[in-house]
Design a protein that fits this description.
180 residues, disordered N terminus, six-stranded mixed β-sheet, alpha/beta, 26% strand, single chain
Amino acid sequence: MIRNSKLSTALRESNADIANTFKDSYIFDFLNLPETFNESDLQKSLIQQMKNFILELGRDFLFISEEYKVQVGNSDFFIDLLFFHHGLQCLVAFELKVDKFKPEHLGQLNFYLEALDRDVKRQNENPSIGILLCKDKDSEVVEYALSRSLSPTMVSEYKTELPDKTLLQQKLHQLFDNRE
């Protein structure tokens, strides 16, 4: 309701109903994180609160692993959180960032998706999807970064507290005013 969804072209074209599966913004108020935290703190809190995390994500998400290891060449890489989406029949990699979105984050996520599709995905499954969860994002920067992305990716932001009551009231009024 607060923002419009930003999806890569590949993700939009892969499934017409994809925008209803993933959110542009998530609320993780159940984590009880301190004011400042790092990616490890965020990941540990999400794992400890997995039931609430999956409820926030939505239906059909099945948790596979945290720090899922993929090996490319002689190097090991670790995907923060890996899920399988039953309805979409694909792997979903979540990369966590505790700062504002940067275009270079997509390069890391695209690399993980390629490794998953080549080495982990089964033949009957659809291409893997990547979700970059950032603490904040500039929608215009995200749009530019995703415009040429060939991977099925999405950039979502998260909040560790509910939005301000006044902002929610304004958005509700806008929603109902637009229906009239």
